Amino acid sequence: MDFSSFSKKPYVITVACTKGGSAKSTNAANIGAFCADHGLKTLLIDTDTQPTLSSYYALTEEAPGGIYEFLSHRDVDPSHIISKTAISNLDLIQSNDPSNNVSPMLRNAPDGAIRFSHLLKSINHYDVIIVDTRGTRDITVDMSVLAADVLFCPILPHILSAKEFIRGTIGMYQDLQTFESFGFKLPPLKAIANCVDNTNDVKFVLNQLNVLFETNFDESKTFLNFSIPAHVAYREAATYALPVYRHNRNEYPVIKELCCLLFPQFKTLFEQSPGEKR
Fold it and tell me: What digits encode the pLDDT tens for the residues 18-55?
């Protein structure tokens, strides 16, 4: 079965949190590999100047360009910017802008914040596109949110991280609502707790976040009843350049449930084992 028939255009998920260190890149890498392992043609796009996602998996074919050329040259050939990872069905546009030349270029361009949305329309041979962002407010984060079908926000279950999420990420989302006057529809925000243990402090923070979302935010912002555990397997998997569920099968149900929540349209597919005849 050709799973590209599930969608007429790629389903774009942006992973964002204005607090650094929330494991955005790790989540993007695991989600991307899970989708690819289940037969979905998947593209990772690394927009962070610290190219963690770009370095996560080994490459079998490395393109000469990356995100800089994609954003600065409107008619760039895909083969010039899209690399192939060692995981079947999983491609990558690398971060190659360590000096952060992209951000001032976009800020000075009339279409800066919306250029990414238009450029992604030229990439139509993928089922899923996953965009990783930097851990601070920047025009590259704004453009990635505006281009998304869903905004996925991992939050560390610490009180300072939770406060920064409300100030930074929610503040950014609310600022971007001004684009709705120009025909843009902001993606639904789905937040989860990441690196969760069983301490009383974490339980307190999670309860506060639940109350906050239920009482202060509308249905466009959801704190999912799900969390990613603080297991050493995630660090080990990154060391071996593997998806965490390949490194440790105990984590397979976690990534499966996460992907089912983020991509409900592919739930039936995800419930099948990788490689199962479809």
Answer: 888 889 999 999 999 999 999 999 999 999 999 999 99
The CATH number for 118's domain is: 3.40.50.300
How close are the terminal C-alpha atoms of the chain, in Å? 6
Region 73-94: mean pLDDT is: 93
Q: How many domains does the chain have?
A: 1
Q: Is residue 18 part of a domain?
A: yes
d(CA 229, CA 251): 9
pTM: 0.94
Q: In this structure, how many other beta carbons lie within 10 angstroms of the beta carbon of residue 185?
A: 10
Within-domain flag for 244: yes
For the chain, the three-class secondary structure string (H helix, E strand, C coil) is CCHHHHCCCCEEEEECCCCCCCCHHHHHHHHHHHHHHCCCCEEEEECCCCCCHHHCCCEEECCCCCHHHHHHCCCCCHHHHEEEECCCCEEEECCCCCCCCHHHHHHCCCCCCCHHHHHHCCCCCCCEEEEECCCCCCHHHHHHHHCCCEEEEEECCCHHHHHHHHHHHHHHHHHHHHHHHHCCCCCCEEEEEEEECCCHHHHHHHHHHHHHHHHHCCCCEEEEEEEEECCHHHHHHHHCCCCHHHHCHHHHHHHHHHHHHHCHHHHHHHCCCCCCCC
Residues in the chain: 278
Is the separation of the CB atoms in 11 and 263 below 8 Å? yes
